Amino acid sequence: MHPGLRDSCCFWVWGLFLWFSVGSAGDTPPTEQPKCTDFQNANPFRGTNLKVQFLLFTPSDPRCGNLVEESSDLQNSGFNVTLGTKLIIHGFRALGTKPSWIEKLIGALLRAADANVIAVDWVYGSTGAYFSAVENVVKLGLKISSFLSKLLVLGVSESSIHIIGVSLGAHVGGMVGHFYKGQLGWITGLDPAGPEYTRASLEERLDAGDALFVEAIHTDTDNLGIRIPVGHVDYFVNGGQDQPGCPTFIHAGYSYLICDHMRAVDLYISALENLCPLMAFPCGSYKAFLAGHCLDCFNPFLLSCPRIGLVEQGGVKIEPLPKEVKVYLLTTSRAPYCAHHTLVEFNLQEPRNKDTHIVVTFFSSNATSSGKITIPKQKLQGRGVLAHPTPQCQIHQVNLKLQASRQFWSKDRTIIVGKFCTAPLPVNDK
């Protein structure tokens, strides 16, 4: 026999020449690759039985979900008890399908944080009728709480657990936090669901008592999102409704219904992936914010302005944390969404007998942004807040235009004289 064929055998079978190799006793079998588990798909017409999966994702393979049910599964799948744990909970799934944004959020979290990322797949319990999904919230909260107890047995601390809940999933996170008596580290609600929850009790919905730090990003308060504050810090993005870049007519179909609501997810992913900060400012109302009445974060945050993302406590550096603080920010219409807020102010040389409206436009190399200053009659000063994609130092031209009278037949040829000032926010001095 040829020496190179010592461990091989040849056979003639039914006229076909077959060749196969026979391994020696010392050979090791190939390492078995872990089996990836995907989200389930549910038939929305077959009820909403609760079939929950916990899928662990690791940096080595961010697209492969490892099904973890028991402590042994966690120990054998790359779970690291010394790291923090991010738990993602999706919301209502009308058609019983996997959330389209889930993989992008998982990948962004794994790149931004050295942490375990676990996605809670409850597609079966969240499909069909919305009210049926709401009825499953308590049961799901109990299942997640039971799963977290296994993490605690392994040595994970309660304060290292961060729940990120989307829409209805935000209230599930609140329920879990309630079961743990508010001792979980962090809950982030991405446009927490409004229907059935606006008038719900604190025990039934997300609230500031559910974790050591609770934040919520509101982007659709006039439709699918909740309009009341539910955390320590509540971001009302562009006032909390009608996000720039989203369709404004119902003819856009599904996108019209869901775009504002899902913008909270897009913003959070963008905050994880980009260095440009999504900074917000506490204010009594969105109108007051736009009018330039809230220029710093002294009250109540002692100048530590909150930021969307994985900054500890949102960047707020005071203890104890105040509750249900509404903060406002403006964004652009597309990723990375971040905008640099600027105070614009005009001081008239002489008062006028009617309101004066001045449109201010900033020009940079690749963007144009406009805002409005209103100077009340018999007053000398007016101010407003303008948001621009680039910092103030990159603005190469500013245009000021006196807004014409609403009476189209009258021509206002008035020339006004005064002083124009700008300052980037936060403005901590004069």
TrEMBL record:
Keyword Disulfide bond: yes
GO molecular function, one term: phospholipase A1 activity
Keyword field: Calcium, Disulfide bond, Glycoprotein, Hydrolase, Lipid degradation, Lipid metabolism, Metal-binding, Secreted, Signal
Domain (Lipase) ranges: 19-337
Annotated EC: 3.1.1.111
Subcellular localization(s) per the UniProt record: Secreted
An individual GO BP term: lipid catabolic process
Transmembrane feature ranges: none
Active site: 167 (nucleophile), 191 (charge relay system), 261 (charge relay system)
UniProt keyword annotation of Signal present: yes
Reactions accelerated catalytically: 1,2-di-(9Z)-octadecenoyl-sn-glycero-3-phospho-L-serine + H2O = 2-(9Z-octadecenoyl)-sn-glycero-3-phospho-L-serine + (9Z)-octadecenoate + H(+); a 1,2-diacyl-sn-glycero-3-phospho-L-serine + H2O = a 2-acyl-sn-glycero-3-phospho-L-serine + a fatty acid + H(+); a 1-acyl-sn-glycero-3-phospho-L-serine + H2O = sn-glycero-3-phospho-L-serine + a fatty acid + H(+); 1-(9Z-octadecenoyl)-sn-glycero-3-phospho-L-serine + H2O = sn-glycero-3-phospho-L-serine + (9Z)-octadecenoate + H(+)
InterPro entries hit by this protein: AB_hydrolase_fold (IPR029058), Lipase (IPR013818), Lipase_LIPH (IPR016272), Lipase_N (IPR033906), TAG_lipase (IPR000734)
Residues reported to bind Ca(2+): 205, 207, 210
GO CC annotations, alphabetized: extracellular space
Location, primary (coarse class): secreted
Span of the signal peptide: 1-25
Function of the molecule: Hydrolyzes the ester bond of the acyl group attached at the sn-1 position of phosphatidylserines (phospholipase A1 activity) and 1-acyl-2-lysophosphatidylserines (lysophospholipase activity) in the pathway of phosphatidylserines acyl chain remodeling. Cleaves phosphatidylserines exposed on the outer leaflet of the plasma membrane of apoptotic cells producing 2-acyl-1-lysophosphatidylserines, which in turn enhance mast cell activation and histamine production.
Family to which the UniProt record says this protein belongs: Belongs to the AB hydrolase superfamily. Lipase family.
Protein name per the record: Phospholipase A1 member A
Organism in which the protein naturally occurs: Myotis myotis
